[in-house]
Amino acid sequence: MSTTDASSVDRSPASDADVCIIGAGPAGALVADRLADDHEVVILEAGPRFEYADRQERMERALRPAHDRPDVWDVGGPRDASTSTDGWFYPLNHLRVKGVGGSTLAWQGMVMRLHEDDFASGSARGVGPNWPIEYSDLQPYYAAAEREIGVAGADTPYAPPREEPHPMGPFEPSHSDALFAEACEAADVAMHAVPNARNAEPYDGRGPCVGYGTCQPVCPAGAKYDATVHVERAEDAGATVIDRAPVERLDHDAKRVTAAVYATPDGERHRQAAESFVLAAGGVEIPRLLLLSESEQFPDGLANSSGLVGSYFMDHLFAGTGGVLDEPTRQHHVGFTTSESHQFYDDADADIGPIKLEFLNYAGPSPVESALAGDDWGDALLDDLRADYGTSVGVGALVEQLPREDSTVGLDPERTDDRGNPVPRIDWAVGDRALRTIERANEIQESILDALGAEITWQVGPDNTGPAAHQMGTTRMGTDPTSSVVDADCRTHDVANCWIASSSVFPTSGAMNPTLTIAALALRVSDAVDAWL
Q1: Strands 192-193 and 19-22
Q2: Which of 75, 199, 496, 499 has a Cα-to-Cα distance from 336 of 20 to 30 A?
Q3: Using CA atoms, how far apart are residues 515 and 358, in angstroms rounded to an integer?
Q4: Apex CA 427: angle with CA 425 and CA 430, to 5°?
């Protein structure tokens, strides 16, 4: 694949910066785009720029069994090392991307709003904290985020209040969605469209989805939104983007961040000074950076007078049930989810959390992966494909994990990265409520598949569940500086010119994919930084 000579790029600090943004994923990109017209903006990104022309080759990589998911976007090695405890192993690199565009290069692209009760879990469900903001505070920013990203969707009877339709109408239900519809009616389960961050029609200068089917981990067509859209727009407005510039610490005094210290591929260290700083590097790297920035003024890490930087680490847990039918299901004809159900979401209470059901369009093996993984050829291969492919169905779900103070991201005391800095150590603790919720999700899934007449052949339940790669909660939002890291505007309690735009500020996780909420909060942070400047 084509690459740019890292040593030939000028990575010296930008002069007279008003805003330094750390991370060029969706949050950082949106903040930069919003502020670049009126302010001098610089983005520091740890990873490289990826050539758009290479995406088809990366798609081919994704299809070949010799490559794992991290290989598609060059993730791995000492740069991306982490450690995880023996209790609940956390596979950090499975869906992580370091580079301009961040996680949106590899994400599936499901974008739904949190529900009203998610912002008031303690009051409405009797468990967990309330957010210091309400749904109504974020509602206009949700609408703006949907317009910026380009969302194809439709209103549902279970969704929170909307102020306008989605920018695009929804994708049509898939063939397997149609099979599920009759079974769901029999099982008294409502189906509805999924809001997708991919173009159902031409939008914002990008073409519609053409059905490559490799949405996660790569869209070669550009129909699925990724944050390079807003990075490039910010650059057009004058923003400076410095790639391959991992930030190693934040210099500061007792009240303000003064500079971001970053490394370059040639081994040099630079200081990027600015009037304000926005941390947008995700739920693991943000607390790691704050902890690496310890000082005499902040001996336990920058912005950590509460002692809670890195605490309350959360992710969504997956529940799934699948099997086979005696008729074609056209699995893998669609590489993303087109139907879901939020019917059981607001039934949540202290014992069972919210559940988001997903009707999978990619259950079972894909024909390409099956063909490439086997040793057979010709008629034998064709017989194998006919036997294994085309009759699979599955129902997935995401469930909420409650915040726990003993679920943490910290610094590993023994292992270091390629620059000699401690790697993140993840101590992931999962509570009993989440496991009970998975059992409940499995029961609903079984009832649907039984009504469909499917033979159940697999299940992901409490004993073999895993994370959805949605890192949340490690710099939580709150009004009390002793029990939170940032205030209701996502500004750190301890230093006046530092904001955090990330799912790391979520006090609770809900069970909705977090990117739309990240985007809405990023737009809200943009307004706060603009007013402060």
Answers
A1: unpaired
A2: 75
A3: 17
A4: 155
Q: List domains and CATH numbers for the chain.
A: 1-152+217-315+404-428+470-533 (3.50.50.60), 159-194+317-399+430-466 (3.30.410)
Please provide the DSSP assignment of 8-53 as one string. GS--PPPSS-SEEEE--SHHHHHHHHHHTTTS-EEEE-SS-PPPGG
Mean pLDDT of 325-353: 93
Banded model confidence at residue 378, pLDDT cuts 50, 70, 90: confident
- The 3-state DSSP composition of the chain as helix, strand, coil percent (nearest 5) reads 30, 20, 50
The per-residue pLDDT of the chain, averaged, comes to 94
- Say what the pTM is: 0.95
- The whole-number pLDDT of residue 215 equals 87
% of the chain residues with pLDDT over 90: 85
Residues 393-405 as b or e (16 or more Cβ within 10 Å = b): bbbbbbbbbbbbe
Contact 13, 43 (CB under 8 A): no
DSSP class per residue in 81-99: --EE-SSB---GGGG---S
For 364, list phi and psi in degrees, rounded to 5: 80, 175
| Per-residue model confidence (pLDDT) at position 99 | 97
Find the mean pLDDT for residues 399-409: 97
Query: Structure tokens of 16?
Result: 């007279």
Question: Tokens standing for 386?
Answer: 């006919």
Which residue did the predictor score with more confidence, 242 or 332? 242
Dihedral sign of CA atoms 48, 51, 55, 60 in order: negative
Q: Which two tokens stand for residue 404?
A: 């726990």
Half-sphere exposure of 438 (CA within 13 A, CB side): 22
Q: Could you tell me which residues come within 8 angstroms of residue 246 by beta carbon, excluding any fewer than 6 positions away? A: 46, 79, 262, 263, 419
The 10s digit of each residue's pLDDT in 425-439 is: 999 999 999 999 999
- Tell me which long-range contacts 207-213 makes (C-beta under 8 A, separation of at least 24): 209/171, 211/333, 211/334, 211/335, 212/59, 212/335, 213/332, 213/333, 213/334, 213/335, 213/362, 213/366
Lowest mean pLDDT across 140-154, 232-246, 351-365, 468-482? 351-365
Other CB atoms within a 10 A radius of the CB of residue 460 amount to 21
Per-residue tokens: 401: 């994990």
pLDDT in tens, 203-232: 999 999 998 888 889 999 999 999 999 999
**SS3 for 228?**
helix
- Of residues 236, 234, 243, the one with CA closest to residue 8: 243
CA nearest 398: which of 329, 332, 348? 348
User: In 397-514, which ranges are continuous DSSP H helix?
Assistant: 432-452
Q: Quote the tokens at residue 138.
A: 């974020």
DSSP track, 374-404: SS--HHHHHHHHHHHSS-EEEEEEEE-----
